[in-house]
Amino acid sequence: MDVEVVTSGAESFTCNAFLALGETTTLVDAGAYEGVVDEVREHTDGVDQVVLTHQHGDHVQQLDTVVEAFDPDVYAFADHPRRTHELADGDTLPVGDETAEVVFTPGHAPDHVSLVTESALFSGDVVVHDDGAFDDGSFGRTDMPGQSRERLVGSIRELLARMPDSVSGFYAGHGSVFEGDVRAVVERALERAERREPKYPDE
């Protein structure tokens, strides 16, 4: 899968926004980077759809700007003024040149979904490769209102159950893109989350 990070130029806090190029050019999350539209245009003239993993501000702040620039379909689990299609667990939709399954993955956010294709995992914030708390397998924070470590642990288990062994690209909302044994990284994240210890010292 041909995926570009289109928030790499940001100097302020944002999630990673991923542009999956191909037959159905897809932006996974809009991010909070004011230059995201310009970065998208470095790779393509149009965006067919935006898929939101969840609606925390760092993932949706630039959604209006993206919609006004490209007029894409907008897929989200929870209601949003810009949503054109509602997502549900088990839905499938084209992403780039592949088909993605929607996996409902609450815990970090009650409306959180992840996308799994034959080659890629777009995990939002439920599980990440590295984020400053852990390297090579970490998980989303669960210490704020509306979050739940128990639900997040269940969501990571569900991802492992539904993720093909062929997945080799790991695209998370924060941290680095990872290429390799994605399952092993997610399993390490699950082991750490299952300890129920605070992710951050002040959690």
What do you see in this structure?
With 203 residues, the chain is an alpha/beta fold. The chain folds into 2 domains: 1-87, Ribonuclease Z/Hydroxyacylglutathione hydrolase-like (Metallo-beta-lactamase, Chain A, 4-Layer Sandwich); 98-203, 4-Layer Sandwich (Metallo-beta-lactamase, Chain A), CATH 3.60.15. It has 5 helices and 14 strands. It has helices at 36-41, 57-60, 63-70, 149-162, 182-194, and strands at 2-5, 18-21, 26-28, 49-51, 73-76, 85-86, 92-95, 98-104, 113-116, 120-124, 127-128, 138-139, 169-172, 178-179. The strands form 3 sheets. The protein has a 6-stranded mixed β-sheet, with no helix packed on it. It has a 6-stranded mixed β-sheet with strand order 7-8-9-10-13-14. Strands 11-12 form a two-stranded antiparallel ribbon. Strand 2 and strand 3 form a beta hairpin. Helix 4 runs antiparallel to helix 5 (182-194). The chain is globular and about 45 Å long. It starts with a strand and ends in a 9-residue tail after the last helix. The model has no long low-confidence stretch (mean pLDDT 96). Residues 14-174 form the Metallo-beta-lactamase domain. Keywords: Hydrolase, Metal-binding, Zinc. Pfam families: Lactamase_B. One of its GO terms (molecular function) is metal ion binding. This is Glyoxylase, beta-lactamase superfamily II.
